[in-house]
Amino acid sequence: MITNKTLSTLLALTLIFVSSATLAADTPAVGTAAPGFRLQDQNGDWHDLEDYRGQWLAVYFYPKDDTPGCTTEACNFRDNIYAFKAIGATVVGISIDDVDSHREFSEKYKLPFIILADETGATADAYGVLRDWKLTKIASRQSFLVNPDGVVAKHYEDVDPDTHTQEVLADLEALMKGS
User: Fold this and answer.
1) In a domain, 63, yes or no
2) Residue closest to 147 by CA, chosen among 124, 101, 179
3) With 35 labelled, which of 28, 49, 126, 167 sits at a CA distance of 20 to 30 A?
4) Helices (H) and strands (E) in the chain, counts
5) Are 168 and 156 contacting, i.e. CB atoms less than 8 angstroms apart?
6) 75 is catalytic
């Protein structure tokens, strides 16, 4: 017979296990250096964070290529890429999918920006966005604005794929005016 105390203990242990299983490293705080990375893009070319020094960078993490929310978000960045270019900002997407998956995703939706393959999850972990999901790991949908000095200027934890691009553009414009 299961008592209320046993049931409470099991529930508490389950919550502790679930919480610890989904926690990633701490996200970099606004005002601190953005974690570096060296990753391959959808074409197999290597990119370092340092490659973007001197320009504003929107880094968006997403869970999985060619899934509904991720496709919506990527296509919104695609559809607004000229607005990003007009203000001198670069967009980079990152997930833990591999280079081939990124290539197919990029070609299918004609993505005019770089998406990086973080196959080990080390970059997602360094940014605090790596999560356990259905017996695998994913990057949670979060974004960071990195200023020309390589410092995190803004962190977005709650991202709506439908409106995120407009929010990022507005924040970039405001941050650029303030610098």
Assistant:
1) yes
2) 179
3) 167
4) 6, 9
5) yes
6) no
Residue recorded with tokens 């060296």: 38
Q: What is the CATH number of the domain that holds 165?
A: 3.40.30.10
Domain containing 133: what range? Answer: 27-178
CA dist 179 and 173 (Å) reads 10
Domains in the chain, number:
1
Catalytic residue from among 34, 49, 57, 70: 70
Q: Which amino acid is at 86?
A: A
Collapsed DSSP state (helix, strand, coil) of residue 82:
helix
- Which residues does 161 contact at the CB level (< 8 Å), separation at least 6? 69, 70, 72, 73, 76, 141
The tens digit of pLDDT for each residue in 35-79 reads: 999 999 999 999 999 999 999 999 999 999 999 999 999 999 999
pTM of the model: 0.84
